[in-house]
Amino acid sequence: MGRERLGFDMSVRVELGERTYEVHVGAGLVARLGEVARAAIGEVGRRAFIVADSGVTATFVESAAGSLAGAGFNVTRVTIEGGERCKTLGHAERLLQELAATRHERSDLIVAIGGGAVCDLAGFVAAIYRRGVPVVHCPTTLLSMVDATVGGKTGVNLIVNGHLKKNMVGAFWQPAAVVADADTLRSLPIREFRAGLGECLKHGLIGAHAGDALLFDDTLVALKNLYNRPPDLLTDLIQRNVRVKAAIVARDEREEASDDGGGRALLNLGHTFGHVIESNSPLLHGECVALGLVAAAAVSGHLNLAPAEFLHNIRSSVKAAFVAPQPGKQARKGIETVPNAADPTIIAPLSLPPIAALIDQMHEDKKSRGGEPRIVVPLRDRRARVIRNPDPAALAAGWRAIGAE
Ligand code: GLY
Q1: Does the CB atom of residue 166 touch ligand 1 within 6 A?
Q2: Which has the closest alpha carbon to 399: 296, 255, 304?
């Protein structure tokens, strides 16, 4: 991937009129969180309410709090266990009550520090507390840097009839700024890092819609070094992914464009399958998206939108991305595989329901219209298209491609 200097000039602007904001990307940026937040919300806000993911190191949260205090904020913080389970109305209510107890005002700031789930939750709380207060996201996982904190989707999940319904309750609420400190990725558990690559591959497969048709192939080339997590490569990876997402969000902030309009629906590539896998398995979101990409490529093949080798290519690319060096063993043994969530064989022990039941669940996806699922399928030229109400045989081909029966 290309080389660019680290520093504050690595920001990406999300152009949304009066809701425009910067996503700052670079190593060591947490030290400047307060400065960024102050510039983003102006002098009025006095309080900063940090919602910190318990998975984030105490020193990082201290640095964030210190930086905010240095910029004149009176800092309060709560810690919350991250992961999908924190995305509940119950957790949102608890945060709302804590905000009210600290007399948080409309001009005061919420700062989310952590993975995608904590940022989604804190963003949702920011959207509804007193009808909206500013939020600055400080994502600490690859997935939250390249996806969750860019574009203003916030929300919590519901459990309906025993099934996880992701993001069923939410709001569009753009952050005032995002500070993505690439240093946090250096200590991220390898499985979480790898899961973030699922969203990166997704962006690569739609990169031509956002002026970066080379992102997918460049990411594959970068893989040989990516798991060593050098800051310049990470910064470059994050920045290019954020650019893709920002360009698409800027065109279609609220996912209202027509299906053929190159809008935000494209970002759901891999997700219609992925969300169903996630409801039926303990896999991480990014792992499910990676599997969803393989399934969606199989749908393309079934519909003759891509040649047979395309599925093979996507499957082997996902597998390549999901092969990581074992920490501590790399020098002695070179690259080794870790348990491979992108390998279809992992589906069998997960006991996915039969394909007919999986397809039924796809009809309940919140993106479906009139009960008809909409699937985003990849094409060969790093573009994708939305298919309405696809033939069940095509969906079945997708499920079979990842090992369901
Ligand atoms: N993650 C899909 C979107 O932000 O639209």
Answers
A1: no
A2: 296
Residue 384 near residue 210, CB atoms below 8 Å:
no
Marked catalytic residue, from 32, 38, 104, 271: 271
Give the global pTM: 0.91
pLDDT, one tens digit per residue, over 233-268 is 999 999 999 999 999 999 999 999 887 777 999 999
The helix/strand/coil state of 184 is: helix
Catalytic status, residue 285:
yes
| Å from CA of 196 to ligand 1 middle | 14
Strand 177-181 versus strand 135-139 pairing type: parallel
C-alpha 140 to ligand 1 mean position (Å): 18
Compute CA distances 139 → 92, 119, 157, 222, whole Å. Answer: 19, 7, 20, 22
Q: Compute the distance between CA of residue 299 and CA of residue 301 in angstroms, rounded to an integer.
A: 5
Residue 283 identity: L
Choosing from 47, 240, 264, 382, the catalytic residue is 264
Taken as a whole, the chain contains a residue count of 405
Q: Summarize pLDDT for 126-177 with one digit per residue, the tens.
A: 999 999 999 999 999 999 999 999 999 999 999 988 877 889 999 999 999 9
Catalytic, 209? Answer no
